[in-house]
Amino acid sequence: MKIRRVAPLLGLAVGVSALACPAAAEITIGVAVPRSGAYVAVGEQVLRGVEAAARDANAHGGLDGEPITLDVQDDACDSNKATAVANHFVQSKVGLVVGHVCSNASMAASEVYAANGALMITAASVAARLTDRGLPTIFRVCGRDDDQARLSATVLAERFRDRKIALIQDLTPASRTLAAATKDNLNRIGINEAMSVAFSPSDADDAALADRLKAAGIDVVYYGGDATEMGRLVRISAERGFKPQWFGTSAIATQDFAKIAGPASNGVLMTFYLDPSRQPAAASVVQAFKAEGVDPTGSTIYGYAALQALVAAGNFAHAGDPKTIAATLHRERFDLVLGSVGFDAKGDVTAQGYVLYVWKDGAFTPAGK
């Protein structure tokens, strides 16, 4: 693939109406995020990034010369609602969609988009099976859960080989998949977990689980739950005198985790995508966010990158239709806030994958070696 240099969408446009432009024609891009339910914080991060990228794109001429408007819909990370949102976009003739956030929602909605020739690009859905189907108009700018599980297993093996490790999951699809994949990778390395537990999160069940893990002498707990569930479990465990090494996933990459867990969040490890807010390619965008009082951590820059990729491909191809933009994304490389990236035949981004982070004083930073 050739590297195509595109005009970077740097800085939030000041004084530009959210998505307004005097031209008569416009391109509507659908945005599907959870604005209700357990993953609202991640949805807000993605939406914040998408809105900023749309403003910046419009300040530089829009997509193929036409201004961008956003049709924002709430799927609540629910498969049925996601399907309804996808059908809404198709019926409204919206052919470009940034979304969804949760993998189960993306899986359900992607079937509708693929069947109708619409393009979907997600900033946060990590399920490997989403792109393993090879649907030509389905993309992601984030990582894959199988890559995340491999890193988790490697870290557990390298840092905690001689410690008692518990792998727990709360029966949600994402938590179950990550626990199973991490267990498989860990066992293949030659390490067996001391416990493997499924539970239903609640104050009572969290307390009972903490007591059970403490009684078993568990040293390290790996959990793929969301920020709310893990935050509560970490806090309740600490209150009951159980303070193991906690190990979370990209699902807790929001400050909600630290707010709920409180001081017990300090030292918690977490796998998450490479944080582009610390990279040179995103410096101007990050600076503009911070000037508005916004901390662009978590999935914010990935939301920005998702829309930025659509604009870059559309402007390169001088087209606004999903089929041409999808083909361009598969074929070319672009300079985005993630760096110089392209997309493989499956629709996975060719950017750096997961890294290890540690929480301290309400924020997460690279954990180092």
TrEMBL record:
Protein's UniProt keywords contain Repressor: no
Keywords of this entry: Amino-acid transport, Signal, Transport
Leucine-binding protein domain sequence ranges: 26-362
InterPro entries named among the record's database cross-references: Leu-bd, Leu_Ile_Val-bd, Peripla_BP_I
Source superkingdom: Bacteria
Secretion signal, residue range per the UniProt entry: 1-20
Alphabetical GO biological process terms: amino acid transport
Family: Belongs to the leucine-binding protein family.
UniProt xrefs under PANTHER family: AMINO ACID BINDING PROTEIN, LEU/ILE/VAL-BINDING ABC TRANSPORTER SUBUNIT
Record-given protein name: Branched-chain amino acid ABC transporter substrate-binding protein
